[in-house]
Amino acid sequence: MLKKIIILIFIFNTSTVFAYYPTYVSQTKHLTTIGYKHNNNWRDIIVDSTSMGKPIHDEVKEILSTINNKLFEVVEAEAREEINDTPTLRFRELKRAQLIGPLNTKIITQSNGVVTVELSGFTFDAEVKVDWLGITLYGDVDTSTLRFAADYNVSTGRVYNLRDIGNLQVDIDIDGNGIINSIVAETLDVLQYIFFPDSVQDAVDEAINELNDNEYYVKAFDNVILPQTWIVDGIDIGLEIKDAIKGINPGEYISISLSEWDERYYEGSKYRYYYKNRAVIDISNEYKFDYGNEPVYATGDWINPCAGPGGSTSGCYEP
Q1: What is the largest CA-CA distance in the chain?
Q2: Cβ count near 176 (within 10 Å)
Q3: Is the model more confident about 17 or about 102?
Q4: Cα 266 to the chain's mean position, in Å?
Q5: What is the mean pLDDT of residues 234-238?
Q6: Which of 9, 61, 210, 249 is spaced 20 to 30 A from 77 at the CA atom?
Q7: Average confidence (pLDDT) over 15-23
């Protein structure tokens, strides 16, 4: 009898070990704060709308992806050519080449009507794998926060001809698991030639000039900010944004900040990542526009990761 009780307890315990209720993203909210300044106080509202917010989310994601893909392409071609031109070195792989941090674009209309642009807020990050006569080395490249002056075409939204105004610094670290100094020195010389400040500047310039659906990134973003849509107290914030991007109001500026990152959360047995992005616009500290997507977390039955009212049709997705 005792043996049967022990067996039953064991069966009961093993049957409950695998029942867990993981955290999942049940819904994504697309939230936008729009506002204006009145008597030195902000008057704003929060718009919770997928139909209005998701096109902005998708465009920001596409813009940053287009820029980083072009940056990778440009850096890979340059690194491959220069490394393979060195007799003792062979290019193996560009592990990454990307901009880290917000892409801040400030369009300034001077009092005389001349429009200038500053680009800032991000760093350049890359890693290249090379071979020195059978020895594998990794070169890690990081920069200081970048700041450029640039030319701007008000008709097309093109930002081009970047010029460093932030004293761009490049740091290169070679990891070769204790290889001799002479090998490190030779490899470092080659990478310093590839990633010297002017070269990084030119690569970023070429990347931000990559067309996004046949438009430059400022114009592409402008296309998803619709007039007669983002209105607070009768003020059309969308129209204010469009006018500022065109530079039609002397003495004003518009700052557009585009960023993306992954938010880590614990699913119950492992970590997962939820993609987020944000678009923040400031017009001369008089008007503001702040979009971002936010996850709604829930806990569900392990059999159905989209458990809850509506099941998988309730918006259980990670963009």
Answers
A1: 97
A2: 16
A3: 102
A4: 22
A5: 96
A6: 61
A7: 58
Residue among 22, 24, 48 at smallest CA distance from 34:
48
135-143/103-109 β-pairing: unpaired
Say whether pLDDT at 6 is over 70: no
Q: What pLDDT shows up at residue 45?
A: 96
Instruction: Provide the β-strand partners of residue 276.
Output: 261
Structure tokens at 232: 């607070």
What are the angstrom distances between the C-alpha of 72 and each of 50, 54, 76, 202?
32, 27, 6, 13
- Stretch 113-141: mean pLDDT, rounded? 94
306 neighbors 31 (Cβ within 8 angstroms) = no
How high is the pLDDT of residue 9? 45
- pLDDT in the model for residue 10: 44
The Cα 34–Cα 288 span in angstroms is 6
Q: Which band of pLDDT confidence, cut at 50, 70 and 90, is reported for residue 179?
A: low
Structure tokens at 28: 């994504």
C-alpha–C-alpha distance, residues 259 and 276, integer Å: 9
